[in-house]
C-alpha cells in the first residue's frame, strides 16, 4: 500500500514470471534497461549466478540518482559495488518467505555510496511487509540461517505439534490450525512484551504441571542444541555460497 501499482515496472526474460505483476496492476517489460530509464529505486531479484550478467547489462544506464537494492543471496556489497559504477547507491537486502503475507523478517545493509536517506526510504517501504532492520553486512548470512531458513524449522515444528495432537485423537485440520495459532500467539507475545523467551516459557510452567513434564521430554531430545546446530549449519552454508 506504500506505492501504487502503476508506479511499479517489473522486468523478466519471459512472460511466465510477469503474469502475477500484471494481475496486480503493475507495468511489465522484457527490457531491464527500460526499468533503469523509468525508475529511481531498482530491486535486483535474480538467482546469484545470474546477477553478474544483469549488472553488466544495466551498468551503462545506472546513474547517481539510482538506488540499487540486491536481493541475491551470497552476493556481497563489495561485489555489487565492483560491478556497478563507482559511487552507486547500493544496498543489500535479505527477506524471507512470510513477506508475501506481510509478516516477514528482513535485514539490509548499505554500501559506501548509500546514506541515511536511502536506508530510511528502504526501511519505510519494506515496513509494510513485516519487520525490517538495518544490520552490519556480517549479520546477513546469520539472518539467512535464523530467519530465511528458519521458516522451514518452524513449519517442521508446527507439523510435529499437530501430529502429536492427531496421535492423541484430534482431527488433523483442527490440530494444524491450533498449532499455527499457538506459534503466532507465542511470537506476538515475544514481540509485544519484549520479554526474553525463557521468561515467557517460565510463565507457562506451573509446579508439577503439564508443561514442565513436556519440556523435560524436549530437553531429553536435545531440542535446543539441535535447533542451534541447524542455525549454525545454514549460516555456514550461506557463507560458503558467498565464496563460490
Automatic annotation (TrEMBL):
Top-rank lineage group of the source organism: Eukaryota
Swiss-Prot/TrEMBL catalytic activity: L-proline + NADP(+) = (S)-1-pyrroline-5-carboxylate + NADPH + 2 H(+); L-proline + NAD(+) = (S)-1-pyrroline-5-carboxylate + NADH + 2 H(+)
Gene3D superfamilies per the UniProt record, alphabetical: NAD(P)-binding Rossmann-like Domain (3.40.50.720), ProC C-terminal domain-like (1.10.3730.10)
Top EC category: oxidoreductase
Major site of localization recorded for this protein: cytoplasm
Pathway: Amino-acid biosynthesis; L-proline biosynthesis; L-proline from L-glutamate 5-semialdehyde: step 1/1
Entry-linked PANTHER family: PYRROLINE-5-CARBOXYLATE REDUCTASE, PYRROLINE-5-CARBOXYLATE REDUCTASE 3
NCBIfam families, sorted: proC
Quaternary structure annotation from Swiss-Prot or TrEMBL: Homodecamer; composed of 5 homodimers.
Protein name: Pyrroline-5-carboxylate reductase
Organism: Crotophaga sulcirostris
Amino acid at each position: 500500500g506504500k506505492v501504487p501499482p502503476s508506479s511499479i515496472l517489473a522486468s523478466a526474460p519471459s512472460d511466465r514470471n510477469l503474469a502475477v505483476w500484471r494481475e496486480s496492476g503493475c507495468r511489465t517489460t522484457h527490457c531491464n534497461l527500460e526499468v533503469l530509464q523509468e525508475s529511481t529505486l531498482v530491486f535486483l531479484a535474480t538467482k546469484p549466478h545470474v546477477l553478474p550478467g544483469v549488472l553488466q547489462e544495466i551498468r551503462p544506464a545506472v546513474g547517481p540518482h539510482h538506488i540499487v537494492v540486491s536481493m541475491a543471496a551470497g552476493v556481497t556489497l563489495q561485489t555489487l559495488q565492483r560491478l556497478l559504477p563507482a559511487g552507486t547507491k547500493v544496498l543489500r537486502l535479505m527477506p524471507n518467505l512470510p513477506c508475501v503475507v506481510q509478516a516477514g523478517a528482513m535485514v539490509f545493509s548499505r554500501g559506501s555510496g548509500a546514506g541515511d536517506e536511502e536506508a530510511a526510504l528502504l526501511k519505510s517501504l519494506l515496513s509494510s511487509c513485516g519487520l525490517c532492520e538495518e544490520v552490519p553486512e556480517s549479520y546477513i548470512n546469520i539472518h539467512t540461517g535464523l530467519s530465511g531458513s528458519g521458516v522451514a524449522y518452524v513449519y517442521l515444528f508446527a507439523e510435529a505439534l499437530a501430529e502429536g495432537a492427531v496421535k492423541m485423537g484430534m482431527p488433523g485440520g483442527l490440530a494444524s490450525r491450533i498449532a499455527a495459532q499457538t506459534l503466532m500467539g507465542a511470537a506476538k507475545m515475544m514481540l509485544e512484551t519484549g520479554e526474553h523467551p525463557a521468561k515467557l516459557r517460565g510463565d507457562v510452567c506451573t509446579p508439577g504441571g503439564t508443561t514442565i513434564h513436556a519440556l523435560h521430554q524436549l530437553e531429553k531430545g536435545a531440542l535446543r542444541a539441535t535447533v542451534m546446530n541447524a542455525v549454525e549449519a545454514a549460516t555456514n552454508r550461506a557463507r560458503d555460497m558467498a565464496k563460490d
